[in-house]
Amino acid sequence: MNTQTSEKLYAEALENIVGGVNSPSRAYAAVGGGAPVFMKKGKGAYFWDEDGNRYIDYLAAYGPIITGFAHPHITEAIKKQAERGVLYGTPTRLETELAVMLKKGIPSLDEVRFTNSGTEAVMSTVRVARAFTGRKIILKFAGSYHGHFDLVLVAAGSGPSTLGSPDSAGVTESTAQEVLTVPFNNVDTLQHAFEKWGSQIAAVLVEPIVGNFGMVRPQPGFLEAVNEIAHQAGALVIYDEVITNFRFMYGGAQNYLGVTPDLTAMGKIIGGGLPIGAYGGKRDIMDQVAPNGPAYQAGTMAGNPLSMASGIACLEVLQTPGIYEEMDRLGKKLEEGMLAVNEEKYHLPVVINRIGGAMTLYFSNHPITNYEEAKDTDSELFGRFFKLMLERGVNLAPSKYEAWFLTTEHTEKDIDDTLAAADDAFAKLAKG
Ligand code: PMP
């Protein structure tokens, strides 16, 4: 495969943009390095790079592109709005329209507020939870990603009884001292942390289905225990549904699992590919937010008409009957197909975690239920697998911790072609 143009563009980008990328995970650092492929156009489940190579895409831009690239309904909505002006700085009917759609999908939302990114949405839920409870500490789970504001760039302390330490330069010790990090799917350590710090904890921040150390389900009863333990101590529960909202069904992971948080942060899919975030929850809690209450949060671009129009159009497409069932069916075919060919011919240590159209393939001998187990999987094999798939025209996320996302545009043939590519890739890995 000729990727000369990408290589040249990457060299130019490296001169002008720090690291050559505008978000670190786009560099291929986690898969052995090299020039990332530069894309030029996308349509449906495919995109084409600057050298004209076509790829079946499972990155979906890290999640938002659930209806594929350049979906006609979404493109039309964006065009129509662009012709009317892209930003006014006044309220529009579009904001309420999208807010009502979110509320219909996710019943725990009484009121919402739009932001421009998932990071801002999560950051705002934290501020609101602190305003509402008058407390400081946020408890989160190891390996989850909640954006790039200081508080969530804090690593675990040495156990549930110690506060965190900075995970990024530029994050202060004092910020780290406001965060507790415990393992996902472990009620005992959660309980232990609450025994020590319960009266100071403002909220538990959790991805109800994890998407950031691969796709990991909560074990039965885990989220119920989170609610019970947090509420008993007077803390709130915040679900970070930036990846999971409208991913497995028309609604949140919370509807899918039958559990309810106090606050929810959203993003990605709800903007149809344009910049967006949103947060919402119970009215008495959300009424902390300015102008109703004392917790400030704002944004020049927040609720901008282009993102609203694109998000509305995306959710309209997702109301098509059978659409989620089909992503689940094709996801299952892909999962089972890869496992079967590996079992039959190669015997590589492969584990797949899948929920609907979202999955992660780990090179591992053990199941993955938390971050420690996800870390303890073979990065080198994954890096080689990623590159072999790319050479065969299948684009995955360039990290063993990311998910593969099917879109509404992937077809049976795309899955067959992906399975053929995986068969070849496994064969090469098995040869050593
Ligand atoms: N929360 C979760 C669960 C995420 O996966 C992400 C981004 N991958 C974010 C928050 C941050 O969203 P954004 O990149 O839009 O700021």
From TrEMBL:
> Which reaction is the catalytic activity of this chain?
(S)-4-amino-5-oxopentanoate = 5-aminolevulinate
Q: Where in the cell is it found?
A: Cytoplasm
Q: Which cofactor does it need?
A: pyridoxal 5'-phosphate
Q: Which UniProt keywords apply?
A: Aminotransferase, Cytoplasm, Isomerase, Porphyrin biosynthesis, Pyridoxal phosphate, Transferase
Q: Which residues carry this modification: N6-(pyridoxal phosphate)lysine?
A: 268
Q: Which Pfam families match?
A: Aminotran_3
Q: Which GO MF term does the entry hold, naming one?
A: glutamate-1-semialdehyde 2,1-aminomutase activity
What are the EC numbers? Answer: 5.4.3.8
- Pathway(s) of this molecule: Porphyrin-containing compound metabolism; protoporphyrin-IX biosynthesis; 5-aminolevulinate from L-glutamyl-tRNA(Glu): step 2/2
Top-rank lineage group of the source organism: Bacteria
* InterPro entries in the record: 4pyrrol_synth_GluAld_NH2Trfase (IPR004639), Aminotrans_3 (IPR005814), PyrdxlP-dep_Trfase (IPR015424), PyrdxlP-dep_Trfase_major (IPR015421), PyrdxlP-dep_Trfase_small (IPR015422)
Xref: HAMAP family: HemL_aminotrans_3
PANTHER family from the UniProt entry = GLUTAMATE-1-SEMIALDEHYDE 2,1-AMINOMUTASE, GLUTAMATE-1-SEMIALDEHYDE 2,1-AMINOMUTASE 2
Per UniProt, subunit arrangement is: Homodimer.
* UniProt similarity note: Belongs to the class-III pyridoxal-phosphate-dependent aminotransferase family. HemL subfamily.
Q: What is this protein called?
A: Glutamate-1-semialdehyde 2,1-aminomutase
Instruction: Quote the gene name from the UniProt entry.
Output: hemL
